Amino acid sequence: MHERTTPAAQEGGSQWVAWNLDALDGEALRTAYRDVASFVDWLRACDIEVPACWYTHAWVVWRLAALSAWLEVAYIAETNPREAVDWWLVGLEPLRRDWADLQAHRGRHVPHDAPLDDPAPVPSLDDVVDVLVAGRPTEGPP
Ligand SMILES: [Zn+2]
């Protein structure tokens, strides 16, 4: 299994969960993306074909983050095995269907500002995360 390094959401009260990527910034956001990337590596090791450009599609990242968190509880000893079956059939399978069209991207996108251009390689995961982190400055003192 992949390792999750994202700290759990703060205990007590109605805190955001760790797989709510909008609630994260700075190093926490980088860590969350690294965790999802680790999860993607694990999926690929399980022969699940994940689109090369997964990290550029926010809806895919969000669903992967939630699935990763769900996997952690689907396979713990106290869980009914039905939870694991649901993880595969209710969690992963619909995502595989929904991202089927993204497989054709093969890690390349047509630039948004030049729709008639040939597809170009998508930026690296690190570059995408750098842009996201820069767009969410961490809260400093007032
Ligand atoms: Zn794509």
Order of strands across the biggest sheet?
Answer: 1-2
Report the β-strand fraction as a percent range. Answer: under 5%
Shape: globular
- Extract low-pLDDT stretches: 5-10
DSSP summary: helix tally:
5
Mean pLDDT across all amino acids: 87
Helical fraction equals 40-55%
Q: How would you describe this protein?
A:
The protein is mainly alpha-helical. The chain has one domain. The chain is 49% helix and 3% strand. The chain has five helices and two strands, in the order H-H-H-H-E-E-H. It has a two-stranded antiparallel ribbon with strand order 1-2. Helix 2 runs antiparallel to helix 3. It is globular. The protein starts with 25 loop residues before the first helix and ends in an 8-residue tail after the last helix. About 4% of the residues have low confidence. Bound molecules: zinc ion. The site of zinc ion (ZN) has 7 residues, from loops.
Key attributes of the depicted protein:
binds zinc ion, 142 residues, 3% strand, globular, mainly alpha, 49% helix, two-stranded antiparallel sheet
Write a short abstract of this structure.
This protein is 49% helix and 3% strand. The protein has 142 residues and is mainly alpha-helical.
